[in-house]
Hints:
Layout: E1 2-7, E2 10-11, E3 16-17, E4 32-36, E5 41-42, E6 50-51, E7 54-55, E8 62-73, E9 76-78, E10 81-82, E11 99-106, E12 119-121, E13 129-137
Antiparallel strand pairs: 1-2, 1-3, 1-4, 5-12, 6-7, 8-11, 8-13, 9-10, 9-12
Amino acid sequence: KTVRARGDGYVCQVAAQVLGGSITLDDDYTNVAVGLEYNPLIEPNSVHVATQSGSTLYVKKRIVRAFVDYYQSLGIYINDNLIPYQEFGDELDTPPTLKDGVFEYNNLSDWLIRESATITQKDPLPMTILGIGYEVDV
Protein backbone atom coordinates (compact mmCIF):
# COMPACT_ATOMS: atom_id res chain seq x y z
CA LYS A 1 0.00 0.00 0.00
CA THR A 2 0.98 3.61 -0.51
CA VAL A 3 0.62 5.79 2.59
CA ARG A 4 1.22 9.40 3.60
CA ALA A 5 2.66 10.48 6.93
CA ARG A 6 2.76 13.54 9.19
CA GLY A 7 5.48 13.81 11.80
CA ASP A 8 5.43 16.39 14.57
CA GLY A 9 3.03 18.54 12.55
CA TYR A 10 4.97 18.40 9.27
CA VAL A 11 4.17 16.44 6.11
CA CYS A 12 7.00 13.88 6.14
CA GLN A 13 7.32 13.07 2.45
CA VAL A 14 5.28 12.71 -0.71
CA ALA A 15 4.42 9.02 -0.25
CA ALA A 16 5.80 5.87 1.35
CA GLN A 17 5.42 2.22 0.47
CA VAL A 18 4.54 -0.22 3.23
CA LEU A 19 7.08 -3.04 3.15
CA GLY A 20 6.85 -5.88 5.67
CA GLY A 21 4.32 -3.94 7.75
CA SER A 22 6.47 -0.82 8.19
CA ILE A 23 7.61 2.33 6.41
CA THR A 24 10.83 4.33 6.40
CA LEU A 25 10.51 8.08 6.93
CA ASP A 26 12.88 10.79 5.72
CA ASP A 27 13.68 12.04 9.25
CA ASP A 28 13.24 11.25 12.96
CA TYR A 29 9.91 12.26 14.50
CA THR A 30 8.38 12.01 17.98
CA ASN A 31 4.70 11.84 16.97
CA VAL A 32 3.77 10.25 13.64
CA ALA A 33 0.37 9.79 11.98
CA VAL A 34 0.23 7.46 8.97
CA GLY A 35 -2.74 6.79 6.70
CA LEU A 36 -3.77 5.69 3.25
CA GLU A 37 -3.18 8.29 0.56
CA TYR A 38 -6.32 10.04 -0.63
CA ASN A 39 -7.13 13.42 -2.16
CA PRO A 40 -10.42 14.91 -1.00
CA LEU A 41 -12.54 16.73 -3.58
CA ILE A 42 -15.45 19.05 -2.84
CA GLU A 43 -17.33 20.26 -5.90
CA PRO A 44 -20.65 21.96 -5.10
CA ASN A 45 -23.56 21.87 -7.51
CA SER A 46 -23.73 24.57 -10.18
CA VAL A 47 -24.84 27.99 -9.03
CA HIS A 48 -28.59 28.51 -9.13
CA VAL A 49 -30.07 31.94 -8.49
CA ALA A 50 -33.80 32.55 -8.13
CA THR A 51 -34.65 35.91 -9.71
CA GLN A 52 -37.90 37.76 -10.43
CA SER A 53 -37.71 36.58 -14.04
CA GLY A 54 -37.23 32.93 -13.02
CA SER A 55 -34.53 30.36 -12.46
CA THR A 56 -30.97 30.81 -13.70
CA LEU A 57 -30.12 27.11 -13.62
CA TYR A 58 -29.61 26.95 -17.42
CA VAL A 59 -28.65 30.59 -18.00
CA LYS A 60 -25.05 31.73 -18.44
CA LYS A 61 -23.67 33.30 -15.30
CA ARG A 62 -20.27 34.33 -13.96
CA ILE A 63 -18.95 33.65 -10.48
CA VAL A 64 -17.23 36.90 -9.54
CA ARG A 65 -15.99 35.81 -6.10
CA ALA A 66 -16.07 32.65 -4.04
CA PHE A 67 -15.84 32.52 -0.26
CA VAL A 68 -14.50 29.43 1.51
CA ASP A 69 -15.28 29.28 5.23
CA TYR A 70 -12.85 26.88 6.92
CA TYR A 71 -11.99 25.79 10.46
CA GLN A 72 -8.77 24.40 11.98
CA SER A 73 -7.35 23.59 8.54
CA LEU A 74 -4.18 23.72 6.44
CA GLY A 75 -3.28 23.07 2.82
CA ILE A 76 -6.67 23.83 1.21
CA TYR A 77 -6.80 24.58 -2.52
CA ILE A 78 -9.58 26.38 -4.39
CA ASN A 79 -9.38 25.71 -8.15
CA ASP A 80 -5.76 24.58 -7.66
CA ASN A 81 -4.79 27.80 -5.83
CA LEU A 82 -3.47 27.32 -2.30
CA ILE A 83 -5.28 29.23 0.43
CA PRO A 84 -2.35 30.89 2.23
CA TYR A 85 -1.71 29.69 5.76
CA GLN A 86 1.72 31.12 6.50
CA GLU A 87 2.26 34.79 7.27
CA PHE A 88 5.29 37.04 7.60
CA GLY A 89 6.62 36.66 11.10
CA ASP A 90 5.74 32.95 11.39
CA GLU A 91 8.67 30.95 12.74
CA LEU A 92 10.16 28.83 9.98
CA ASP A 93 11.41 26.02 12.23
CA THR A 94 8.01 25.26 13.77
CA PRO A 95 5.07 23.53 12.08
CA PRO A 96 2.29 25.84 10.89
CA THR A 97 -0.66 26.31 13.24
CA LEU A 98 -4.16 25.35 12.18
CA LYS A 99 -6.10 28.28 10.73
CA ASP A 100 -9.72 29.46 10.78
CA GLY A 101 -11.16 31.99 8.39
CA VAL A 102 -13.07 32.95 5.31
CA PHE A 103 -10.93 33.06 2.19
CA GLU A 104 -12.07 35.25 -0.69
CA TYR A 105 -11.13 34.06 -4.17
CA ASN A 106 -11.67 36.62 -6.95
CA ASN A 107 -12.39 36.39 -10.67
CA LEU A 108 -13.39 32.75 -10.55
CA SER A 109 -14.93 32.07 -13.94
CA ASP A 110 -16.09 33.14 -17.35
CA TRP A 111 -19.75 33.26 -18.43
CA LEU A 112 -20.85 29.62 -18.22
CA ILE A 113 -24.06 27.66 -17.64
CA ARG A 114 -22.48 25.24 -15.17
CA GLU A 115 -19.78 26.57 -12.91
CA SER A 116 -18.64 26.05 -9.33
CA ALA A 117 -15.49 26.18 -7.24
CA THR A 118 -13.48 23.03 -6.63
CA ILE A 119 -11.96 22.51 -3.18
CA THR A 120 -9.11 20.00 -2.87
CA GLN A 121 -6.17 19.10 -0.67
CA LYS A 122 -2.87 17.56 -1.76
CA ASP A 123 -1.20 16.80 1.57
CA PRO A 124 -2.44 14.89 4.63
CA LEU A 125 -3.45 17.88 6.71
CA PRO A 126 -6.60 18.73 8.69
CA MET A 127 -9.43 20.19 6.60
CA THR A 128 -12.88 21.26 7.78
CA ILE A 129 -14.97 23.26 5.30
CA LEU A 130 -17.90 25.03 6.97
CA GLY A 131 -19.36 26.57 3.84
CA ILE A 132 -18.83 27.92 0.34
CA GLY A 133 -20.51 31.10 -0.91
CA TYR A 134 -20.53 32.96 -4.21
CA GLU A 135 -21.03 36.42 -5.62
CA VAL A 136 -22.60 35.90 -9.03
CA ASP A 137 -23.33 38.06 -12.10
CA VAL A 138 -26.42 36.89 -13.97
